[in-house]
Amino acid sequence: MVSILLLVPALVCGTSGEKQTEIAVQNAVQNAVQTASQDGREPITTEQHPSTDSSSVTEITDAVEPTSEPGLSPVISFLSQKTVPFEDHGSQTEIALDAYVQRVLWAEVPASFSDEAWRALAVAIRTYAVYCYLHGLVLSPDSAVCCAYLTEEDALVQFGDRYDQIYRKAVSAVQDTAGEVLLWDGTAACTMFHAMSYQNTASAEAVLGNAVPYLVSVSTPEPQDTSGMITAAAFKEASLQTLLHVEQALPLTVEEDGEGRVQSVMTADGHRISGTEFRQRLSLRSTNFKIVMQDASLGELSLQVFGYGHGVGMSQWGAEYMAQAGNSYGEILAHYYPGCERSVNYVIP
Questions:
Q1: Cα–Cα distance between 182 and 126 in angstroms, integer?
Q2: What is the per-residue pLDDT across 36-49, written as a single tens digit (0 to 9) for each?
Q3: Between 20 and 30 A from 81 (CA), which of 218, 281, 300, 316?
């Protein structure tokens, strides 16, 4: 699953939550860019549904001694008991932070993923939730607004006989990373993530128009033959006119950014559309796409699309391949969020 953060929650997770993610990014951008200029640092959101155990969720909210890697900031206090604003069916309530992390893990992380990948996602989700809290953003179970999310009842139905196994996996990931968040300049970072990218992730600047020091394009290891990496999309001229709100679409002229993704598309009648908006209007899996064929006389367009999601931040499948290669969750997080500091038990101001 995917889902999309910098006052940009919808983009944070995998491919979901792109709306709130855009808002999140704008906030993070202002904070991060200002920080970078002050200290001289250079600028540096799962589309596949998961699977995890069966005790009560309250088990997750209990404070447990973290078993995370050495080299982290000193323990100050636990975030495990912290509650954050949560809106469900139009009514706002509170949810225990770690219970939220577990339920997003259920919805965002394939059950087959390695433990280190689960831990990396747990830290990213927790950090994202804290980031939203600090910026007045209310978490939502709606994947179109925020991260994908499963209630315990939905998880029981979806996972069936695998529920106990998947529950345990999520609980372990939450407890093994207890209190851990990623910090930029001493505060929670906007830890966007997505399902998969081809060769390189995207920067926040390329996708959202705002540069963020720790959301830059980095290499990602998932191979071309990863399931769902390459997809095809075909359109008729009439459909393009409707979807793009233009009188004449074909032929299209595509401009790529330095990361191999489409920055903008020019239609035949002179309308320029950003790559992100073009992707959204045509429901493409990513902005990394190539025109395979376009014929104005026949009124046909064929595209080849690479990856899945907005492409910013951590690639979930990239995290899995790094874990399979022996990387720890700390190394995975450092790769996808360069310059961020891992801290145990960050104290929310």
A1: 9
A2: 222 222 222 333 33
A3: 316
